[in-house]
Amino acid sequence: MKNERPYQICAKTIMDTSDPNIIFDENGVSDYYHNFQNVILPNWHTDKKGHEELMIMAEKIKKEGKGKDFDCIIGLSGGLDSSYVAYVAKEIMGLRPLLFHVDAGWNTDKAVGNIEKLCNGLGLDLYTDVINWEEMKDLQVAFLKSQIADQDLPQDYAFFSGLYRFAKKNKIKYVLTGGNFSTECCREPEEWGGFPGIDTMLVKDIHSKFGKRPLKTFPLVDILSYKIYYRYVLGMQVFKPLNLIPYVKKDVENLLVEKFGWEPFQHKHHESRFTRFYEDYWLPRKFGFQKRRAHFSSLILTGQMTREEAMDRVSRPELTDEFLKKEFDYVAEKLDLTSNELQEIFEGTNKTFHDYKNKIKLIRLGAKAMSVLGLEKRLFR
Q1: Which residue has the higher pLDDT, 233 or 253?
Q2: Which has fewest Cβ within 10 Å: 13, 14, 133, 282?
């Protein structure tokens, strides 16, 4: 469905009408800016108050983890947010986390190197869950053939379901994540491939139409399971330490580089070759959506980037045409498609997840409840 609104861009951020539900005030300032100022900022404490809250939580996790091999679990991708959480958990909170990595077949060499450097430098154990590549590949090709914008869902499903499934099996109660306001206060809208949560109805419908092999071992933990059953029956808790301490992207990159020889990425999510290809090639060129708008707007709102810098950066691709063409061929080959077959899918008619069975109404209801209860402060749509 074509967006019929005249083009408009927020006067404070670089969010624009490519989010069809964006709202502007009389001064051309979007609801993303107002939500940050009125909802996030007053409730976001990275000072002494935040530190105290962090340490209270640390003591609680330590106490409940006594006698166990690990007192919490952290999903580690080798990217900035998860790497910093691992550092904070061990060095600031004094915890004994298990670092958990899901290998879905798309790691960059840099991500693999960063994981190794962190584990060695922090003296922490790593558990790697390797997803069955034939199943992963089949699901990814099915999603590509579905023509929806949400092409990173198979990887996300693997990462989060693998983590939750392992935590449940091993009775690890606390899951620490790199979710944060500092670099993610501006949430990507649904239309941009930002489908909220793991919807097993959606994945099963798409896979039944386009998949070729059964997903016998692929981890799938439905959003309702981990939001309700895991949380309220099993008592599993997701905690975001990065919201309680100062988190300036460049400073944290420098810290990790100096302490561990960690290597920074050109942009958010570039630790995965598929995500990099999807966000820098597939999504902008096929659907016209730039996730960088949300990433840079978050940095503008938190004072880490000027609007002018963001406008300049988003005006041109993050990666060269030559590099992206090579990545296109690489992705096709890895998925057992010819470049022509992938090109044919790319040129197919765009669809949305609404064209398939899904639980979005139920998920939105849950998201609204979380907003009302103050558990989700970012704009959710």
Answers
A1: 253
A2: 133
